[in-house]
Amino acid sequence: MGDTLRATLRARRQRLCERVAAPVLLWSGCAPARNFSANRYPHRASSHFLYFAGLPLNDAVVRLEGGRLELFLDDETPAGALWHGARPTRDEFAAAIGADAAYPLDALPARSPDAATIAVQDARSLQQQCQILGREVAPAHAPDGPDRELAAAIVALRLVHDAEAIAALRESAAITIAAHRAGMAVTPTARTEAEVRAAIERVILAGDATLAYTSIVTVRGEVLHNGSYGNAIAPGDLLLADVGAEIASGWASDVTRTWPVSGCFSPTQRAIYDVVLAAHDAAIAAARPGVEYRELHVLAARILAAGLVDLGILKGHPETLVERDAHALFFPHGVGHLLGLDVHDMEDLGDLAGYAPGRERSDRFGLGFLRLDRLLQAGNAVTIEPGFYQVPALLKDPRRREQYADAINWERLADFRDVRGIRIEDEVLITTTGCEVLTAELPTAAEAIERLVGSAGAV
Amino acid sequence: MGDTLRATLRARRQRLCERVAAPVLLWSGCAPARNFSANRYPHRASSHFLYFAGLPLNDAVVRLEGGRLELFLDDETPAGALWHGARPTRDEFAAAIGADAAYPLDALPARSPDAATIAVQDARSLQQQCQILGREVAPAHAPDGPDRELAAAIVALRLVHDAEAIAALRESAAITIAAHRAGMAVTPTARTEAEVRAAIERVILAGDATLAYTSIVTVRGEVLHNGSYGNAIAPGDLLLADVGAEIASGWASDVTRTWPVSGCFSPTQRAIYDVVLAAHDAAIAAARPGVEYRELHVLAARILAAGLVDLGILKGHPETLVERDAHALFFPHGVGHLLGLDVHDMEDLGDLAGYAPGRERSDRFGLGFLRLDRLLQAGNAVTIEPGFYQVPALLKDPRRREQYADAINWERLADFRDVRGIRIEDEVLITTTGCEVLTAELPTAAEAIERLVGSAGAV
């Protein structure tokens, strides 16, 4: 770890102690068991731990108070050294992260009184949190009491990315862009979704990164969180790939592209693609400090509705259609979310990060799935990811068909049956004057996508 | 799911109810959260559930009593259908696995009295097990009371693979063999361990399978459970790859090969490789019903010791060296383990499956890590995986250096410094007359390995 990162970590801790007087304990967590205890899922350290400690340690705790950092970690046992090799000692790790002191884990109870914390995901560490603090630690989604004040302070910090965070996001995005290119290039010769997924993830693994979330690589794009890859792919299909790398320090990436398996969009696919792209471009063009993220969502919805009106699928005035949530029949999710160490950054805290104080999720069909409702400020990183889907659970719902009977031309919609799902997603960093698309190197224009699919030079 | 599999599942359940009178509840378990609750690790259903129910369901329970099967599973919610697509209904799943009845999960408490169970790995489901059964369910490693009788019955069944299981193991092995070939082929042009790992895992993902365990792909083979891929690779290095596929039904594969990065073993590497291979071949040649698996371990150790004596690294009589555990300085682990739905089959039950009743782990340096100590019988699947490693934690340990001062020629050993770690691992099915190597299509001979490395025809 370099001096710059060490200085960054120190600055983050300093900013935290300016906001939180109580001592803070942050657990790294442990990898959960898969099918037996010696066969574990890959370890993913808690993002809050990573933000202040920088290293993806396993079964470690840091204590922050008044700018001082203490590391609690047990040294490798002799058996551990046999199976896992020599690793740095506790003191070496402590030096690497700029800790002022380091102790074994059994020294933790004595340093725990009155500490605030954030619940980790793995059950074993959560139990340890409760035992050591001698109180309930509310599992994620509802930090309470002293922990709530800490959570709010961490949100304030992590919402605004520092230079080190932005560099890490760029690194993660670069791997993801290369991975999507590889997926496009292999598609015309691939027989299954699994083969395309494998080509994409290969690039991420080859970059010594991992997946920030379960990849979606499917010709059934209308299944929003499709996590299986068993379908055959064929010319005429659109393939939707929502895949993002996560680099070793934990920083995530999140990109979606939709491309034709044959390398050529059909006229109907291209028409809808261009509508989604117009929504995507308009939302990004409007993203800048002082703008409500929710307005970007509504703007994307409006552009989408207008495009569908132009195509004869929706009927009426775009603005009215959006007010009636008619767009949500085809675009049922939010336009995006925070991005950082987590692909939905800080979603372990429920809506504490995504929603400004005093705001709550809407119960409107067209807004309830919006994960972010804040005034944008420089340093925020968000995704912009409008889409168009033909979801049977929505379009065949008799209640909705009746509700929107006057808004949809079903006969015209039937012309677009080769468009199951399209999403175009980029990562957007809010700058002082506007925004920067961190994933701009991966084209979005239909012609450019067509050129990349199957082009040998693209890998 | 075909009729054959349904019949197999029925036969397995019938055999279980012949052994266990009490009703049995088996949980599938749920995927644990990674960094927030909506971002989960890939779901891996409990192997005991898979063995009797056949489908990798999430958050499901089966009840077995007197040959009758009941499925407990909640239907997809409307929101679930939006995000995850339509899935078969409870009744469709029930028909697929040949269940006699199907209920929602809230019907479970009424059907739970006096049921035996096996603890699952994920904390949420384990908690549910305790709540619904109204008693402690000992987490893995120590099934107790009624659960112990059930565990012993399941072990008796799962130790002896039926035709369906053997077919599944073959399928998993075939993907793994192709994956290793791809890894060998890419090695001479790869720059890092990560690139080789990516080429190997790509084949597994492209086959719509997953990894049975965290891959080991490293030029530092002396780190037995090396789970990182950050090293550069260079001509002169040996690359050790211990990678196995797991197919959708859960059946695992487990294969290790060690190959020269350049495509050519150095004379010292080849000499040690041939010693390890001789140990591997001898153990497999001796594997048949009625043989103690422990004897295969001792045999491999003896052949290894003899080879190291011939090379001038060890001094003394091979048999005496093995009695003194001198071989374990270079071969500190067991010669293999059970293989099935789990890569270490049924290791969630501690040593209940691996060790015959009344047997316990030895505290001897050369035997304590042996995971299997049973009389082999037809239908067992085991791995045979001897190795040679130069582990600093062992070879630089002053106590061991003194203990084995007369047994090792340190000067001669220094000639072999380019051999960090070699392991050769195959899957072996015990047949009625001997054994069959399930992974025999992947060569082990040094010359054949050299031909595959970098050979374009090998992918």
Strand order of the largest sheet of chain A: 6-5-4-1-7
Broad structural category of chain A: alpha+beta
What is the CATH architecture descriptor of the largest domain in chain A?
Answer: Alpha-Beta Complex
CATH level 1 class label of the largest domain in chain A: Alpha Beta
Give the quaternary arrangement of the chains: homodimer
Mean model confidence by pLDDT of chain A: 95
CATH homology superfamily name of the largest domain in chain A: Creatinase/methionine aminopeptidase superfamily
Low-confidence stretches of chain A: none
Number of helices of chain A: 15
Distance between the termini of chain A: 31 Å
Description:
The structure is a homodimer of 459-residue chains. Chain A contains 15 helices and 17 strands. The first copy, chain A, has 2 domains: 3-159, Creatine Amidinohydrolase, Chain A, domain 1; 163-458, Alpha-Beta Complex (Creatine Amidinohydrolase). The model of chain A has no long low-confidence stretch (mean pLDDT 95). With 459 residues, chain A is of the alpha+beta class. Helices cover 37% and strands 14% of the residues of chain A. The first copy, chain A, has helices at 3-19, 47-53, 78-84, 90-97, 123-133, 145-159, 163-186, 193-206, 267-286, 293-310, 318-323, 392-395, 398-403, 410-414, 446-452; strands spanning 24-27, 33-36, 39-40, 61-65, 68-72, 101-103, 116-117, 210-211, 216-218, 238-243, 245-246, 255-260, 381-384, 387-389, 421-423, 426-430, 435-437. Chains A and B meet through strand 2, strand 3, helix 3, helix 8 and helix 12 of A and strand 2, strand 3, helix 3, helix 8 and helix 12 of B.
